[in-house]
Amino acid sequence: MVADTVDAGAPAEQGLEEYFESRVAGEQRIEPRDWMPEGYRRTLVRQVAQHAHSEIIGMQPEGDWLTRAPSLRRKAILLAKVQDEAGHGLYLYAAAETLGVDRADLTERLIEGRQKYSSIFNYPTLSFADVGVIGWLVDGAAICNQVPLCRSSFGPYARAMVRICKEESFHQRQGYELLLRMMAGTEAQRAAVQDAVERWWWPSLMMFGPPDADSPNTRQSMAWRIKRDTNDELRQRFVDMSVPQADRLGVTLPDPDLRWNAERGHYDFGEPDWAEFKRVIGGGGPCNAERIARRRAAHENGAWVREAAAAYAAKRAAEREAAE
């Protein structure tokens, strides 16, 4: 458990970095008012902003099915989930702002291609079964990745992750419940689920990032307690969690190398296509251009809302000042 912030004994001018390192090593949280190395702040801005961008861009693949959901119940569930993802983005942008960056600037960096988001959201949703598989696999991978972040050394990020993880866990169960219903349905429904699993399995494994040997940021991020597990450790945890769920569901995961290794106590599995991963991260995925174009249009079309909110806030501030 991460201990509360302790300010007593903080050095005034000298030894700041040593004091910072000792607090991180002692599982004490770093808060926005605390001194921190520029590299720590820069790494957090990159990680939290990319996470926030992923939540907002991640509304699009499932949002495509809001008008085509097969029943009112499924429409209501999907609408609530997409709204949750918007809320996650807001929590995370707020956490990033405590590091001295501006939300509008982060949005500009996203739509200009200067900051990235999770590669998984650059794949299309071809059937309603994709909605269930995104809940089961994509949100399941997100849970594996994000639960350890509740113990991040940076206080605002860790606290934001607590609520996000609770909601993502609910999303994962929603997706799995949808798939169970479809697998108990018609042959066409079962085929749609199997097809969706085959298209989303490997991109889900790529969500954890490149292999540890090719991940330049992992070592320092773990030393700073920004990250708690390596990419490969998280990927293994996800596979171990997903295989029994796939068996219960009655689907086949598209990996001929997938088998239980009694000696390791884990499942062995094949290697994702890292060339595809790099291509998608680099902007060459099936939906990269579409995702960014939509985000840019939403940002531009919402300009009048931001201007109205700013004018209202200025008016209220002037009224309070006049009343004092």
From TrEMBL:
GO terms for biological process: phenylacetate catabolic process. One of its GO terms (molecular function) is phenylacetyl-CoA 1,2-epoxidase activity. Gene3D superfamilies: 1.20.1260.10. It comes from the Bacteria. Pfam families: PaaA_PaaC. GO terms for cellular component: cytosol. The keyword Oxidoreductase applies. Keywords: Oxidoreductase. It is an enzyme of class 1 (oxidoreductase). Its EC number is 1.14.13.149. This is Ring-1,2-phenylacetyl-CoA epoxidase subunit PaaA. It comes from Spinactinospora alkalitolerans.
